[in-house]
Write a structure and sequence with these properties.
This protein is an all-alpha fold and 131 residues long. Helix content is 82%, strand content 0%. It has six helices and no strands. α2 runs antiparallel to α6, α3 packs antiparallel against α6 and α5 (52-75) packs antiparallel against α6.
Length: 131
């Protein structure tokens, strides 16, 4: 049963409870976009949406190449294999930025799905329905 049909079965008191619970649990698109704007390359918006697996991968592909590039440029002579590794890490960092930008196209939909699911869980808890 979708949320609209479930909402129609709620009393005014239950709707008040739903509103109060929703305000506590729902994710904000503004917060998600703020995190994306400043920290998309390390997956901050993914951590906010509780998508920890992808967030950790984004964090790793943003931090590890950055540290490696700094270490390679400061402590090596950038010839041969070191030069290859430098470009490998630059491409990896570029991929991290690209991944963050592609992620932006799906951010609003992800927030809406999370909020829809959260609302469904709250309604089921109010009505005492097993999910």
């Amino acid at each position: 049963m979708d949320n609209l049909n479930l909402l129609r079965t709620l009393t005014l008191e239950e709707l008040g409870i739903l509103e109060a619970e929703s305000l506590k649990k729902m994710k904000s698109k503004e917060v998600a976009w703020g995190l994306w704007t400043g920290l998309h390359f390390i997956g901050a918006h993914r951590f906010y949406t509780n998508d920890y697996w992808y967030a950790s991968l984004m964090l790793a592909t943003g931090i590890i190449p950055s540290i490696a590039i700094i270490l390679l440029t400061v402590y090596t002579d950038l010839e041969g294999f070191n030069f290859f590794m430098l470009w490998f890490f630059i491409l990896m960092l570029f991929g991290s930025f690209l991944w963050g930008w592609i992620d932006a196209f799906f951010l609003n939909k992800r927030i809406e799905e999370i909020n829809h699911e959260q609302e469904r869980k709250i309604i089921h808890r109010i009505k005492g329905i097993e999910s």
